[in-house]
């Protein structure tokens, strides 16, 4: 195994290990881990300052995960929208391909909590061929998003095989990779990996920082290696109660992302996934956060705030009410100070 694989193998996977380090009672967490596995890399564990802090909440099991019976395991209907195993075809011109079922850290708010870390790998030869055949047979597909789990937990050769075979499909224009390893296992972003990825442009990576404490010298170096390989980097943040549901925290996160060459892309309202209800915030909090960004920091630091609708109906951007028509061609437009300013529209 390589260095990053050895580091991953040293991860904490049981509440007893947490108890020895932090002096907590492991007993309430044992049942949770039986249903929803845990894994915390040594790197991410060392970022936790104390039990209950924003990073602890993201990765340490919580008894409330088993108390949330109101929501569904698959509210986005991904399995219904899966024409072949591991492939989700929701939008006309793009598909999501789940090429891995494991992550470096198992986030407690995961949208695929029902399956990530709970099932075997989804990248066997038969599944890979079926997915590639489906994509190749549909010329309307121009965009493939590799997801999981985390695609960057595949070894370099396995990942390159997928990328190379995708690049043989003439109508496929871009490939995107969704990965949290720059945040949770930055050691994985090696120079060898980046040299390989560089061969398959146009290639984009969306990563997943949720709190300013996750932006460290190590994660910044990982992102710099990817950016220096010519890969545009975006970030998808999930709005999480007790983690980043604060305008000041979110603004600082967006600013620091730009500093490490990562463009804020989405702030996601929590999906209505079973076992994650204790992370959910009111939509109004997200709108307040968006208000706190507009005009108070660079427009580049203002992502879309979106809800992913139940039933596979797609993402919808949410915006505060900025414009009011007061008659004819006169609009009142609210600026970042909250002032309503007149604007003359066309007749």
TrEMBL record:
Q: Where is the Radical SAM core domain positioned along the sequence?
A: 89-308
List required co-factors: [4Fe-4S] cluster; pyridoxal 5'-phosphate
What domain of life? Bacteria
The residues that hold [4Fe-4S] cluster are: 103, 107, 110
Keywords on this record?
4Fe-4S, Iron, Iron-sulfur, Isomerase, Metal-binding, Pyridoxal phosphate, S-adenosyl-L-methionine
Q: Reply yes or no: does the keyword Metal-binding apply.
A: yes
Sites where N6-(pyridoxal phosphate)lysine occurs are at 315
Q: Which CDD domains match?
A: Radical_SAM (cd01335)
What Pfam families would the database entry show? LAM_C, Radical_SAM
EC number(s): the record gives 5.4.3.2
Citing just one GO molecular function, the answer is: metal ion binding
User: Which NCBIfam families has this protein been placed in?
Assistant: KamA family radical SAM protein
Which family is annotated? Belongs to the radical SAM superfamily. KamA family.
- This chain belongs to which protein, by name? L-lysine 2,3-aminomutase
């Amino acid at each position: 195994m390589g260095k990053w694989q050895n580091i991953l193998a040293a991860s904490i996977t049981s509440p007893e290990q947490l108890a020895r380090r932090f002096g907590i009672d492991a007993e309430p967490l044992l049942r949770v881990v039986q249903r929803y596995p845990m894994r915390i890399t040594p790197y991410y564990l060392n970022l936790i300052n104390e039990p209950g802090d924003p990073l602890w909440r993201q990765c340490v099991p919580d008894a409330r995960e088993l108390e949330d019976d109101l929501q569904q395991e698959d509210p986005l209907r991904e399995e219904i929208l899966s024409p072949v195993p591991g492939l989700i075809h929701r939008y006309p011109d793009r598909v999501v391909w789940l090429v891995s079922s494991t992550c470096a850290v198992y986030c407690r708010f995961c949208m695929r909590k029902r399956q990530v870390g709970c099932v075997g790998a989804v990248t066997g030869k038969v599944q890979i061929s079926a997915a590639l055949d489906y994509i190749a047979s549909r010329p309307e597909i121009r965009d493939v998003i590799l997801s999981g789990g985390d695609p960057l937990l595949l070894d370099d050769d396995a990942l390159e095989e997928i990328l190379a075979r995708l690049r043989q499909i003439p109508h496929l224009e871009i490939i995107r990779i969704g990965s949290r390893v720059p945040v949770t296992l930055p050691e994985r972003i090696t120079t060898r990996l980046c040299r390989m990825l560089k061969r398959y442009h146009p290639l984009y990576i969306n990563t997943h920082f949720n709190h300013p404490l996750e932006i460290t010298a190590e994660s910044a170096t990982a992102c710099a290696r990817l950016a220096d390989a010519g890969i545009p980097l975006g970030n998808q943040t999930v709005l999480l109660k007790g983690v980043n549901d604060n305008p000041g925290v979110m603004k600082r996160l967006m600013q620091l992302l730009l500093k490490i060459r990562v463009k804020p892309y989405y702030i996601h309202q929590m999906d209505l996934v079973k076992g994650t209800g204790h992370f959910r915030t009111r939509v109004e909090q997200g709108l307040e956060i968006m208000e706190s960004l507009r005009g108070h920091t660079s427009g580049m630091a203002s992502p879309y705030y979106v809800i992913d609708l139940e039933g596979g109906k797609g993402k919808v951007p949410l915006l505060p009410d900025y414009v009011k028509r007061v008659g004819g061609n006169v609009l009142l437009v609210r600026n970042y100070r909250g002032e309503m300013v007149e604007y003359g529209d066309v007749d």
